[in-house]
Amino acid sequence: MPFILDMDATSIAEKIKQGELSSFEVTETYINRLKKINPRVNCLVEDRFEEARLEAKTADDILRSSPIDAKGRLFGVPISMKESFHVAGMKTTAGLPNRKNLVETRDADAVASLKREGAIILGKTNTPVLCYCQETDNKLYGRTNNPWGLDRTTGGSSGGEGALIASGGAAVGLGSDIGGSIRFPSHFNGVIGFKTGNGQASLVGHFPFQTHPLKARMEGIGALAKSVRDARLINDIVAFKEPDKKDISQFTIVIPRQSLFYPVNPGTGRAITKVSTILSADFPVVDEQPPYLKESAELWQSLMAIGGSREMEEIAAGGKALYPLKEYCLERMFNSSDYHRYFTWVLVAARISNPGKRKLAQIERFLTQGDRALDDYFENRLLILPVYHRAAPPHGKVIDEIFSLTFSFKRYLPFVAFVNAWGLPALIIPVGVDDDGLPIGLQIISRTGNEDAIFQLGELLEQNVRGYKRSKI
């Protein structure tokens, strides 16, 4: 039943509970879809199809025999999961061959919350090594391709999840984001995405787990979805508490255009103009640059480089010594390293950018000052920014632009880094397409506590722009 592939999780849950669809037929539809798309897209790296079928049959039996026990906002709904979240009975490899046989015994907190709501997990999706860059490729599972153009990047690190949802492989999915890892794949693949703000959801059971508080403040989790209401639903389930209600009519919309400062391609410029025109009919819209945007790319790089790459090197090498530059050269020239070149190149960048104690103290003071200023700035403001300066480029281009020796990240990363460095929540809406028909998404950003206003604006905008469309690959 192809129409199921286009339905969001909220609709599927309603129809299952009303008896209009069975959990088994929905689950089987998605399994068949995944079997069709995965040989070309390579988004799913481990499945649990047989277990999912049994769970779906059990859900249908419960609904028939004791409807009062058919509880949960995702009762009987098949979902997918970024590989970095522990799922009991499944592997969390992070794309590392030395973890390929490691089976987890406990669910991540977010996974447990989704299961309590009745969700059925179909499988886990591809990431870069240790979720450590914005392109999804690794030595264990290989490269994930964008379903809108197989020669294009799917982004990362939730790249497998973005490609799967764009292809109609599950009702909804879960990702994580410390450097655009939900937002790049949402933008490049044309799906809805949401990243929680600092400290708003548990990261226990996510691998790798950020132990340094200045890194942890940048990371959030959330849905990759077909609708804003699904993104809201997943947030309500995995966040520590549901957002407070807001009166969106009291908000000003900030859309930098003349004050954008960083260059974007014509398709992205048209998307910004379109959204500004739509929202100007109902809201005050101002063209200004938010505080601290210009500082965000370098700030993000310094925060990610705290401690150099030592922790990631130890995990990747299983406690053995790892020499990133040597491994990068071996892979680049002879294809003979055990580590993907994207991963080792980012390790090299982290070693170079590692802030010393004095600089780290300066960063901490700067963050305290900036947090206070941005909290005031966003009290009644919603900001709309691009995710990237263009739609999905060919494979390898993003890593070249963000980790180039020419420091081009200063031009290309601020839109994404602003959200992570300051621990802000962000919602991504597919707005349009570029001249090649590739999706373009924009972010709606505000402070923690304004999530309800973000979702309200997203729901309004979703009705007037491209929104989610399934790739027919």
Q: Taking Cα atoms only, what radius of gyration do you get, to the nearest Å? A: 21 Å
The overall pLDDT, averaged over residues, is 97
Give the termini distance in whole angstroms. 16 Å
CATH superfamily annotation: Amidase signature (AS) domain
Helix content: 40-55%
**What count of structural domains?**
1
Question: Biggest β-sheet, characterized?
Answer: 11 strands, mixed
What letter string, H or E per element, gives the SSE order?
HHHEHEHEHEHEHEHEHEHHHHHEHHHEEH
CATH architecture: Alpha-Beta Complex
Number of strands: 11
Shape field: globular
Describe this structure in words.
Helix 3 (23-41) packs antiparallel against helix 4 and helix 6 (159-166) packs parallel to helix 7 (183-189). This protein has a single domain (3-291, 373-462), classed as Amidase signature (AS) domain (Amidase signature (AS) enzymes, Alpha-Beta Complex). It is globular, with a radius of gyration of 21 Å. It is of the alpha/beta class. The longest helix has 21 residues, at 357-377. It starts with a helix and ends in an 11-residue tail after the last helix. The chain has an eleven-stranded mixed β-sheet, sandwiched between helices. It contains 19 helices and eleven strands. The protein has helices at 3-6, 9-17, 23-41, 49-65, 109-116, 159-166, 183-189, 213-216, 228-238, 266-280, 293-304, 310-317, 324-334, 341-353, 357-377, 397-402, 409-412, 414-421, 451-462; strands at residues 44-47, 78-82, 120-125, 173-177, 192-195, 220-225, 252-254, 285-286, 381-386, 426-433, 439-445.
